[in-house]
Amino acid sequence: MKRRTVATISGLALACRASRTSAWSLSSSSSWSSRVSLSSISSRPRSPRHPPILAMSSTDEDIDLDSLHLTPELEMMTKAFARIPDEKTRHKQLLYMASKLEEVGDEVRVPENKVPGCLSTVHVDCVLVPGEERGGDEVVRYFGDSDGLLTKGLLALLIRGLSGCTPEQISKVDPQFIKAAKISQTLTPGRNNGFLNMLAVMKQKAANASTKRTDGDVIAAAAAATDNDDDQHGNVSQSEAETNDVASFEEIEGKPMYNAIMSSLITLLKPTSLSLVDNSHQHAGHGGAKGWEESGESHFRLEIVAEAFEGLSPVKRHQLIYMVLGEVMPKIHALEIRAKSPSEQQKEN
Q: Which of 136, 237, 262, 269 is the most exposed place for a label (fewest CB within 10 A)?
């Protein structure tokens, strides 16, 4: 009798344990979900009755992109990152973007361009350039660098997503897009704060550039009013060739770098005056004269006048020209630059 009772009790205990185990495995307990890693999900056989646990919150899915006021490029990248199925691949994509970020000089790595509150050191700056459409709004071009690879990838994402847009468009961008892109899942709290600081600094940089340009426009308008008054009293104004944008140039056969420099400057900066002199013959045979073996072009002297330089320091004017010339710059040895704004040229005349 005693043995039968013990057996019955043991059987009931096993049945209860099996029942609890079955109920637990079918439940969606949050404590269980929090302990399941992405690797264990991918390695476990999936039951057709129960969908896999996703490493994302429901709020990420519910974000309306239209409410984030994203730039076209930023919206495209947000959707692309959101379609990436796992964090590891998103991480690799950010590192790839970091490797493609255009290099900057030490003139960018100055205290006034440093982003505060980042785990890594980040420097970023911008300039205003004419929009693609002649007579359209000016747009912002960013450039920067970071000594942390992942942070540099985030910076590259922002530079690509915000460059080419107006300061007003940039000011409206909601940082919540980082959640919609699921990139926030890859970031530690410290890096997430650093990302928010980068975006805030870039917005402020764009606003400051716009303010400086507005002040420059006021000065230029006052100078133009003075010129018009002089014209009414019989004084001679600048010639039409000097006041109109330089729209074309005569290409020189066998001078690919000269042609590329002229084409890029005219297309993107729309200068009112432009002079490019090839001084390569004065440096033939000098050590480090890049470009000489390819086409005999290594040293140039550039004189350019453009509205894009209004309100910019000489260093930022040079940075803008370097950015516009892009792949041409590494192929030449030296570029002597004299960049002025139209108002500065008027004062000199």
A: 136
Selection from 216, 233, 246 nearest residue 347 by Cα: 216
Q: Two tokens at 81?
A: 């990152």
pLDDT tens per residue across span 176-231: 999 999 998 888 888 888 899 999 999 999 988 877 655 444 444 444 444 444 44
Q: Which segments of the chain does DSSP mark as H helices, in order?
A: 2-26, 30-35, 38-43, 58-62, 72-83, 87-99, 149-162, 167-171, 177-180, 189-232, 240-243, 256-269, 292-295, 314-325, 342-348
Strands 139-146 and 299-305: unpaired
Compute the distance between CA of residue 169 and CA of residue 131 in angstroms, rounded to an integer. Answer: 13
164 Cβ contact list (under 8 Å, min separation 6): 71, 73, 139, 140, 141
Residue 181 to residue 154: CA distance in whole angstroms: 12
**Burial class of residue 176, CB neighbours in 10 A (0-12, 13-18, 19+):** middle
**77, 11, 86, 78: which is closest to 54 by C-alpha?**
86
pLDDT tens figures, 140-188: 999 999 999 999 999 999 999 999 999 999 999 999 999 999 998 888 8
Confidence at 316, pLDDT banded by 50, 70, 90: confident
Structure tokens at 180: 């919609």
What count of other Cβ atoms lies within 10 Å of the Cβ of residue 277?
12
The token duo for 182 is 């699921």
pLDDT in tens, 286-313: 544 455 456 678 889 999 999 888 888 8
- 343: burial class by Cβ within 10 Å (0-12, 13-18, 19+)? buried
Residues annotated as catalytic are: 118
Neighbours of 29 (CB within 10 A): 10
Ramachandran region, residue 154 (left: φ > 0; alpha: ψ -120 to 50; beta: rest) = alpha
Residue (of 167, 55, 139) closest to 324 by Cα position? 139
List beta partners, residue 300.
278, 335
